[in-house]
Write a structure and sequence with these properties.
123 residues, seven-stranded mixed beta sheet, 11 strands, globular, mainly beta
């Protein structure tokens, strides 16, 4: 599946952004989806993951209560609503897809990746 992330930009601390990830296939609803991020000089890390139906979600501790992952299978699109943004949220955000096993944080499980969208949070 081909993935296209969008919605990044420059925002002040405390602000909000919504990222989108559009998938190329009608089988989008068969994939567990995830958002990851990679800050300069750091390893890529999980942000959130969502099951095929959207009923189960996983969040990294660093974003719980601030970020919300969702999906619209009719539109083949996943979203990440980011509120109360902090400078430490600055990173390139990637969307990814994997088969089965529910929403998990392990990068190695994800087999398809989008190109990334840059989020910059100024203090």
């Amino acid at each position: 599946v081909q993935l296209q992330a969008s919605g990044g930009g420059l925002v002040q601390a405390g602000g909000s952004l919504r990222l989108s990830c559009a998938a190329s296939e009608r089988t989008f609803s068969s994939y567990v989806m995830g958002w990851f991020r990679q800050a300069p000089g750091k390893e890529r890390e999980i942000v959130a993951s969502i099951s095929e139906s959207g009923g189960n979600k996983y969040y990294a501790d660093s974003v719980k209560g601030r970020f919300t992952i969702s999906r619209d299978n009719a539109k083949n699109t996943m979203y990440l609503q980011m509120n109360s943004l902090k400078p430490e949220d600055t990173a390139v955000y990637y969307c990814a897809a994997k088969w089965g096993l529910g929403p998990t944080p392990d990068i190695i499980d994800y087999h398809s990746w989008g190109q990334g969208t840059l989020v910059t949070v100024s203090s």
